[in-house]
Amino acid sequence: MKIIVLGGAGQMSRVTVKDLARSQDVTEVIVADLNEAKARQVAFESGEKCRGVYADAFDKPALVQLITGADCVINGCTYQVNLSVMEACLEAGVHYTDLGGLFHVTRKQMAMDEAFQKSGLTAVLSMGGTPGTINLLARYGVDRLDTVETIRVLNGCGDWTKTSAIFSVPYSMRTIMEEFTVEPVAYLNGEFVAVPPRSGLETIDFPEPLGPIQAHYTLHSEPATFPVAWKEKGLKNVVFKLALPPDFHEKVRFLADLGFSSTEEIQLSNGTSVAPLDVLEAMIRRLPEDPDAKVQDCDILRAEVLGRKNGVETHYTIDSIARENQRYECSSTELNTGVPPSIVAQMIVKGAITRRGAYAAEMGVDPEQYFIELAKRDMYVTVSCQTPVGIDTFTPVEAQRQVRTD
């Protein structure tokens, strides 16, 4: 099995490469990145199966040449290249998966479903932790209900690392700034509704070691794909909320309010033009790391599924908990995001995923088989079911009221 990881030198994809390299059925891993030196370093560190090469995901002719003959492409690049990489996969005849399209791009990717079906190819979209694993947590609950009214998808992050570093970023700063400033979209009463960034603030009682933490709306792909997957189940409401460590949240909020999320260039007094977000990213790259820091964190994914079974209101809560990991030498966020596309790429090539087309995980990946693979990699899923359950906070009327008053 030959797998190509685009953006393979990135923070999350390094874990993807490690997992592929440790998998018995994988014979070759191509670590492809704009930074060829880093790609070669990641390949060297990951083992003899791996090879690092230069790749520009926007150069489609060169990309087609690179991926032809591979079994699957894992796209770990920024979501802006997703459509272009998918087109290259169609041309080369290669299966595909990625880390997400941040709602709007994901919807465009789903429109390529027919093209992938006709080519006999599978593209599992948005297959990181969230979106990705969390979609399959939701499906586990949905599969056990006759009808479904509401799905809440929640991501809680905790970080207790003792470090001298001024500012530690768990994943792409560009993505984080977009999550804080781009208008989220929720699915409420059967319609897509725009809500203010960082609105819908509420305290979520996550499992230990995280516990209660405040979460807010942010733009994500789950509200784009769930209504497509479960329209026949009567799904009316889908919301996504993110809870970052309070100290980190306040720092990001401050930067966002100052305007550092902007990609529009501003003119400096010396006549130079710069985009604030580019400056922020460059400054973060310059920050010294703390070599003595020992990561201690957690990343919890939760799907709350409310519906009816045999006419009785039933509420499933499905959690997946990841911690910092010694085997992979990574944080919980890196583990939660980097491992899933490796699992799914291998499932596609081995025939464990048979549906062809371009779709999100909940439409073609068996959750229980996937959960077994997660457990092999130190990520465990727990399920609780309540019936009957108080549902005042989940009714469409309450959801609409909350949006209006935030």
Task: From the alpha carbons, calculate the radius of gyration and give it in angstroms.
Answer: 21 Å
| CATH arch. level architecture of the largest domain | 2-Layer Sandwich
Helix content: 25-40%
Instruction: Give start-end ranges of low-pLDDT stretches.
Output: 391-406
Look at the structure and name the CATH superfamily of the largest domain. Answer: Dihydrodipicolinate Reductase, domain 2
Relative strand content: 25-35%
- Largest beta-sheet details: 7 strands, parallel
Strand order of the largest sheet: 3-2-1-4-5-6-17
How large is the count of helical segments? 14
Give me the secondary-structure category.
alpha/beta
What kind of oligomer do you see?
single chain
* Distance linking N and C termini: 50 Å
Apparent shape: globular
What does the average pLDDT come to?
A: 92
- DSSP summary, beta strand count: 18
The number of domains is 2
State the CATH topology of the largest domain: Dihydrodipicolinate Reductase, domain 2
CATH class of the largest domain: Alpha Beta
InterPro entries: NAD(P)-bd_dom_sf, Sacchrp_dh-like_C, Sacchrp_dh_NADP-bd
Domain Saccharopine dehydrogenase-like C-terminal: 128-377
Protein name: Saccharopine dehydrogenase, NADP-dependent
Domain Saccharopine dehydrogenase NADP binding: 3-124
